[in-house]
Amino acid sequence: MHYELYYWPEIQGRGEFVRLALEAAGAPYIDVARGSKKGQGVEAMMKLTAGGARSVKADQTRLPFAPPFLKVDEELIAQTSHILDYLAPQLKLVPRDAAGRRFTQQLQLTMADLVVEAHDTHHPIASSLYYEEQKTAARKRSKIFIAERIPKFLDYFEHVLTRNPHSHSHLVGTSLTYADLSLFQVVEGLRYAFPKSMKRGEKAWPHLVALHDHVAALPRIAAYLASPRRIAFNENGIFRRYPELER
Question: Does domain 3-90 have CATH number 3.10.150.10?
């Protein structure tokens, strides 16, 4: 398959969950907005969104609202969880049985909820406002997120790992799934944004930490993490480190 991934070129964001799946499977893909060749770059990405499309071969009634989206032939597939559900059988990153596939997607959607809440720690009022315009609200939101929401989500994933009858090293079944890769990214992001809180709390999530370490050591993922393809965390993405939010 020929995969074209469209996402913002300077942040990991939601596109990183798709990148990790493609990288883990060794699937060739083009990160279009990061390219400098003709037909690449941010402009190429924006032309394919509902707000920017003017002359696209793809069916214009089926354009994505916003990145990330994946182009396969002339079809555009949007929404991170939806993209992963589409890719997973081809990349062998999901169980073959229907119930296993549904549960993997359920876990991914739960992580999507967590990602929204992590974003809202620094933008609790509006994404259109600068962080500096909502610092007071961000401090209140982060305090609750750290004390209540991180433990609630990560306790749940630890529980899923503990109760997996096939393997405590994976969320579903006995093999690597895209949910495992996404949980790795969630832990990475939370460690970046709230390092002190994660260091204190991780003793309660030994299976989750073990899964993170297992994914990080996978040869293809280790190579990706060490390569220029892996964008560093920064204060423009979803997971941001503002020390004043972790007092």
Answer: no
